[in-house]
């Protein structure tokens, strides 16, 4: 008898439960999030070559291993991005990517713009994603080389490369402002 | 037995569900992709200012190397200042705290996958990165900033050809800034100071400063054709003032200014798929840029890639094709005024440039 009562009681339970319902776009638009995110970063890339230079294969005709000092111009040192420009053609290369890059105070948040901007704000009346730029960027021997090459890797047979220019940055760059990102056009 | 039967029925039911939701992913072909017209992503920089390379004494450096002079000595461009700022930057002395808005909320820099059919590249999805668009000018009547005066002339257009009469462009009478959507407050000042360092010793210091710069109407369009990346480029620049001068190695005793006022550059490279621009690296590692032959501008090509119909086949290209115009409102060196200069209606029929390692 008791069991039967329990079962009957249990069968009533769901009517007292609250169902989870999805929020409509209208409800969602009323949600105001927290203040956003504050980021700082410090990244060092291939300061003394990279893992391939230290641990790279050396048997079977591979010759990845080399000593990479900061001043070394060996093509095996530093990061390398090679993009093929067409079937059977050569490679556009960003080579010798290395150094240290740091910043503090990058902020991420969303923002509603409906005023200012010399009158554009009211007509725009929409949300944007805002990236607040840090006040300065610090570089320590950050460098990259723009080049063209006939093969993807400097250890390929018959490797040839034309370096166009090398950029080396040291010290501090100052900046201010926000980058605003938003959708445009009609799908 | 009934239990097994139930399991059997349940499994069959589950299997049938799996079969029903099975869907295959199929690659989109060029034509289907060509119909894609997505929403773009707009970018603007609000209250922006940037400065790099200053304070060289404290080790701030931005060096560009890899160049050699004719004697084989290494030449290093050592940038001692590069800046982007608002108006009245006073040649880079007023940068941080003097910001500018680049792009407008209603006319932003835009990244978009465009339906090629709308821009003369049939059945292709075209990747486009564009600066704020241009308006039709109140004075110029086109999206060009140059206001032209025409006159009625009767002349031979080629030697030994018959005379023809018509309206010809006579001169540039003014610059129409209503073409630009970037208003005065959205035009940046930027500049660069660099020292020329030859074989380890400081040789000369050079400076270039631009004021009130807008690049409205510029774009890069890229798409794929026959396993190759092809594109169209447009570079449209207006600067109210460009100044260049050289100083001695310590940055003192500067020479006289070379000054361009109201500088207009309107340049297009490539004409949809009729004249694509290709960028490639050949198998020996040299870079090649090619502005293609006018493939479909005329029905029949002669052996040198021109129209076998002669000039008649080019009328569409001459009337609607890409061209380059450069106008300097006022050119002055030191205190001397050289007046205005215009180079207009340059059209590239074919161009191929290849780099060679020395």
- Name the biggest interface: A-B, 48 and 57 residues
Biggest β-sheet of chain A, characterized? 6 strands, antiparallel
Q: Kindly state the mean pLDDT of chain B as a whole number?
A: 80
CA-based shape of chain A: elongated
Tally of discrete structural domains of chain B: 1
Estimate the global geometry of chain B from the Cα principal axes: globular
> What is the alpha-carbon Rg of chain B in Å?
28 Å
First and last CA, distance of chain A: 64 Å
Strand order of the largest sheet of chain B: 1-3-9-10-12-11-6-5
Low-confidence stretches of chain A: 9-17
Instruction: Give the number of DSSP strands of chain A.
Output: 6
Number of H- or I-type helical stretches of chain B = 3
Keywords (chain A): Signal
Protein name (chain A): MSHA biogenesis protein MshQ
Signal peptide (chain A): 1-19
Summarize the structure.
Chain A has 187 residues and is mainly beta.
Textual characterization of the structure:
By secondary structure, chain A is mostly beta strands. Chain A has a domain of about 110 residues. Chain A has 4 helices and 6 strands, in the order ααβαββαβββ. In chain A, strands 1, 2, 3, 4, 5 and 6 form a 6-stranded antiparallel beta sheet that branches. Chain A is elongated, with a radius of gyration of 28 Å. Chain B has one domain. With about 350 residues, chain B is mainly beta. Chain B has an 8-stranded antiparallel beta barrel with strand order 1-3-9-10-12-11-6-5. A two-stranded antiparallel sheet of chain B has the order 7-8. In chain B, about 10% of the residues lie in helices and about 45% in strands. Chain B has 3 helices and 19 strands. At the A-B interface, strand 3, helix 4, strand 5 and strand 6 of A face strand 1, strand 2 and strand 14 of B.
């Amino acid at each position: 008898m008791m069991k039967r009562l329990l079962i009957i009681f249990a069968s009533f339970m769901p009517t007292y439960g609250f169902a989870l319902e999805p929020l409509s776009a209208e409800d969602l638009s009323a949600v105001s999030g927290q203040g956003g995110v504050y980021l700082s970063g410090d990244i060092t890339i291939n300061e003394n070559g990279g893992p391939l230079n230290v641990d790279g294969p050396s048997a079977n005709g591979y010759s990845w291993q080399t000593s990479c000092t900061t001043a070394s111009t060996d093509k095996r040192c530093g990061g390398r991005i090679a993009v093929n420009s067409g079937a059977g053609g050569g490679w556009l290369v960003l080579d010798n990517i290395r150094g240290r890059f740091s910043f503090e105070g990058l902020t991420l948040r969303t923002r509603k713009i409906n005023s200012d901007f010399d009158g554009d704000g009211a007509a725009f009346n929409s949300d944007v994603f805002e990236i607040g730029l840090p006040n300065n960027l610090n570089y320590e021997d950050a460098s990259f080389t723009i080049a063209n090459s006939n093969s993807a890797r400097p250890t390929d047979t018959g490797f040839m490369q034309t370096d166009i220019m090398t950029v080396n940055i040291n010290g501090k760059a100052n900046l201010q402002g926000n980058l605003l990102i938003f959708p445009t056009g009609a799908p | 037995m009934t239990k097994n039967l139930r399991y059997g029925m349940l499994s069959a039911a589950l299997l049938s569900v799996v079969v029903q939701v099975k869907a295959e992913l199929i690659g989109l072909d060029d034509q289907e992709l060509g119909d894609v017209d997505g929403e773009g992503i707009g970018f603007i920089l609000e209250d922006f200012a940037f400065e790099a390379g200053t304070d060289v004494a404290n080790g701030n450096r931005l060096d560009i190397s890899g160049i050699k002079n004719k004697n084989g000595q290494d030449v290093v461009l050592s940038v001692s200042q590069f800046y982007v700022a608002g108006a009245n930057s006073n040649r880079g002395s007023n940068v941080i705290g003097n910001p500018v808005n680049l792009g407008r909320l209603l006319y932003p820099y835009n990244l978009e996958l465009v339906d090629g059919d709308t821009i003369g590249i049939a059945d292709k999805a075209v990747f486009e990165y564009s600066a704020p668009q241009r308006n039709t000018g109140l004075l110029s009547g086109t999206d060009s900033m140059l206001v032209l005066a025409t006159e009625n002339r009767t002349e031979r257009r080629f030697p030994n050809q018959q005379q023809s009469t018509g309206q010809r462009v006579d001169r540039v009478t003014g610059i129409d800034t209503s073409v630009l959507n970037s208003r005065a407050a959205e035009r940046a000042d930027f500049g660069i100071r660099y020292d020329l360092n030859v074989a380890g010793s400081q040789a000369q210091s050079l400076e270039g400063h631009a004021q009130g710069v807008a690049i409205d109407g510029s774009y890069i369009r890229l798409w794929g054709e026959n396993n190759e990346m092809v594109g169209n480029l447009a570079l449209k620049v207006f600067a109210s003032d460009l100044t260049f001068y050289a100083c001695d190695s310590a940055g003192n005793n500067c020479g006289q200014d070379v000054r361009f006022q109201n500088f207009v550059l309107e340049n297009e490279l490539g004409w949809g798929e009729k004249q694509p621009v290709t960028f490639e690296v050949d198998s020996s590692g040299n870079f090649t840029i090619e502005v293609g032959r006018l493939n479909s501008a005329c029905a029949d090509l002669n052996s040198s890639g021109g129209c076998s119909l002669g000039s008649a086949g080019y009328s569409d290209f001459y009337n609607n094709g890409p061209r380059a115009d450069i106008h300097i409102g006022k050119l002055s060196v030191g205190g001397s005024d050289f007046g205005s200069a215009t180079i207009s209606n340059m059209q590239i029929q074919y161009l191929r440039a290849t780099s060679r390692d020395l």
